[in-house]
Amino acid sequence: MPSGIDETALRAAAEALAGARSVVALTGAGVSAESGIPTFRDAMTGLWAKFDAQRLATPDAFERDPALVSRWYDERRMRCARCVPNAGHSALASIERVITARGRSFTLLTQNVDRLHLRAGSERVIELHGSLFAWRCTVTGTKRDDLPMPLPNYPLQSEAGGIYRPGVVWFGEELPAGAVRRAARAVESCDLFLSIGTSGVVYPAAGFIESAAGVGARIIEINPEPTPLSHLATWRFAAPSGELLPHLFESASFT
Ligand code: BV8
User: Quick check: 36 pLDDT over 90?
Assistant: First the structure.
């Protein structure tokens, strides 16, 4: 058990999970931290230390320097490919399996672009911000997730005479409408919402936490640090998700 965790609160949150009719989980970069992937805010080290992620993850940056931005994403893609899902990813996949086997609803909204939830076996995943493993032709919009690692050059020309851009949602870009619609529908009918490893500052993703509170769902926040939305949490666990989630799952007496 992670140090400093209130066992009574953990048991109460576990019972809420075991009895929930419809569960939504929102994950952020913190869920992948224990897999060795730096959080979005801590990501800018080494060659990238002089850049600001929020400025690099924009259409303008790509427009200005497609080679630099393509290289940043390709290096992140290769780093993620070398990492493996951690116990937090696995616990979420187990929670999904147990809940859906009982005919109840589970939806995983992720802001992460590392595909670790899918590699851990989660299936009901909505990738709100796309994926590092998908690239898109700037002319035809054709998506490719089979491009060689590393890319042969930066940027990589596409067959249609354009270039391949990262298949992620940049700041200032709309999220995929279908993903937002499916996410909003899941949140509207949820009675339990888990906010895990996210700083809760990027919208519209963070807005799903507020929407869950708005429909009366109970909220479990798992994050070593408080967030601007911690006040909405019914239970807040200041612990790494890779440690807390397995205990939450094991403490839940699913009937
Ligand atoms: C949009 C993909 C409509 C790319 C990402 C001005 C102009 C345009 C838009 C805006 C604007 N002002 C505000 C906005 C809206 C903007 C926004 O929210 N900005 C914020 C910064 C204020 N949003 C957008 O632009 C979105 N689109 O609004 O479209 C529109 C269109 C045009 C004009 C206006 C509006 C698009 C947002 C998506 C951007 N793309 N990712 C890439 O990866 O390169 S966002 C990226 O940052 C991540 O995906 C993630 O979502 C976000 C970082 O958040 P976190 O995941 O929470 O990660 P972070 O590092 O912040 O925190 C990690 C947390 O984990 C911490 O709390 C830490 O304590 C915790 N932690 C650490 N270790 C652990 C842990 N927790 C648990 N266990 C651990 N072991």
Answer: yes
* Buried/exposed 2-13: b ≥16 CB within 10 Å, e otherwise: beebeeeebebb
SS3 216: coil
Residues 63 and 111 reside in one and the same domain? no
The answer to whether residues 185 and 239 belong to one domain is yes
175-198 pLDDT tens trace: 999 999 999 999 999 999 999 999
Same domain, 97 and 201: yes
The model's confidence at residue 52, banded by pLDDT at 50, 70 and 90, is confident
* CA 145/CA 135 separation, integer angstroms: 6
Domain count for the chain, please give it.
2
Q: Ligand 1 within 6 A of 61 CB?
A: no
Answering whether pTM is above 0.85, one says yes
In a domain, 1, yes or no: no
CA-based diameter of the chain, in Å?
61
| Residues 149, 238 within the same domain | no
Asked about 89 being catalytic, the answer comes back as no
Task: Assess whether 28 and 145 both reside in one domain.
Answer: no
Ligand 1 centroid to 86 CA: how many Å? 22
The mean of the pLDDT values for the chain is 96
Residue 1 scores a pLDDT above 90: no
Q: Whose CA is nearest to atom 17 of ligand 1?
A: 202
